[in-house]
Write a structure and sequence with these properties.
The complex is a heterodimer of chains A (115) and B (115). With 115 residues, chain A is mainly β. In chain A, 0% of the residues lie in helices and 53% in strands. Chain A has no helices and 11 strands. In chain A, strands 2, 4, 5, 9, 10 and 11 form a 6-stranded mixed beta sheet that branches. Chain A has a 5-stranded antiparallel beta sheet with strand order 1-3-8-7-6, with no helix packed on it. Chain A is globular and about 45 Å long. The N and C termini of chain A lie far apart (40 Å). With 115 residues, chain B is mostly beta strands. In chain B, 0% of the residues lie in helices and 49% in strands. Chain B contains no helices and 11 strands. In chain B, strands 2, 4, 5, 6, 9, 10 and 11 form a 7-stranded mixed beta sheet that branches. Chain B has a 4-stranded antiparallel beta sheet with strand order 1-3-8-7, with no helix packed on it. In chain B, a hairpin with a 2-residue loop joins strand 5 and strand 6. The mean pLDDT of chain B is 92. Classes of the chains: A mainly beta (115), B mainly beta (115). At the A-B interface, strand 4, strand 5 and strand 10 of A face strand 4, strand 5, strand 9 and strand 10 of B.
């Protein structure tokens, strides 16, 4: 079946470093992608999204890159802070343009920021 | 706080009992979603509503599960004859249809433990 997965299950970085979290998706028809951050015991928190007609989108300290050729998505976090420690999920919507509302999530990747 | 509100946050129930979770979406959001998340996994789509209409249901939503959104505002998710495999976090989310985006915001979740 179609799936969204993350390349690395865990990532440890030093405070102040830049972090890169990668995600592969398998459905070439997916047209909307979202990154969520989830802290322990809490619900997923929206970080940034990107549509398939874009290849890059920037937010505050975060950048999402989309490479449709190799079906790869990445989240870059600049100047990582201890508060960024969490599990990060990428999610895809297979047919956002067609009105589908189903997001398919990957398993998650745990980011640990060391002071 | 004007985010998605869920209650109860935690529920422990005996196998075979019925449980009901409530979700209050962000004000004026016309789409409401239910997801389920087990430990170490990403959220899995269960169902979604547009206003009071339930438009899509996952195969994960067995006959023991029923979701309602009677007035197009809050929603309830009922699980009848609970089983141990129902133990999970049940997440509610909402969104507002917009011309260029449909950001989905999650609540903090309702933890269910079936003993």
């Amino acid at each position: 079946g179609e799936s969204v997965g993350l390349h690395l299950p865990t990532l440890s970085v030093q405070e102040g470093d830049n972090s890169i979290i990668n995600c592969a998706y398998s459905n070439s028809a997916s047209d909307y992608f979202i990154w969520y951050k989830q802290e322990s015991g809490k619900g997923p928190q929206f970080i940034i999204d990107i549509r398939s007609n874009m290849d890059k989108r920037q937010g505050q300290r975060v950048t999402v890159l989309l490479n449709k050729t190799v079906k790869h998505l990445s989240l870059q976090i600049a100047a990582t802070q201890p508060g960024d420690s969490a599990v990060y999920f990428c999610a895809e919507n297979i047919d956002a343009q067609g009105g589908s509302e189903k997001l398919v999530f990957g398993k998650g990747m745990k980011l640990t920021v060391n002071p | 706080d004007t985010g998605v509100s869920q209650n109860p946050r935690h529920k422990i129930t005996k196998r075979g009992q019925n449980v009901t979770f409530r979700c209050d979406p962000i004000s004026e959001h016309n789409r409401l979603y239910w997801y389920r998340q087990t430990l170490g996994q990403g959220p899995e789509f269960l169902t979604y509503f547009q206003n009071e209409a339930q438009l899509e249901k996952s195969r994960l939503l067995s006959d023991r599960f029923s979701a309602e959104r009677p007035k197009g505002s809050f929603s309830t998710l009922e699980i009848q004859r609970t089983e141990q495999g129902d133990s999970a976090m049940y997440l509610c989310a909402s969104s507002l249809i917009a011309g260029t985006g449909n950001t989905i915001y999650f609540g903090e979740g309702s933890w269910l433990t079936v003993v």
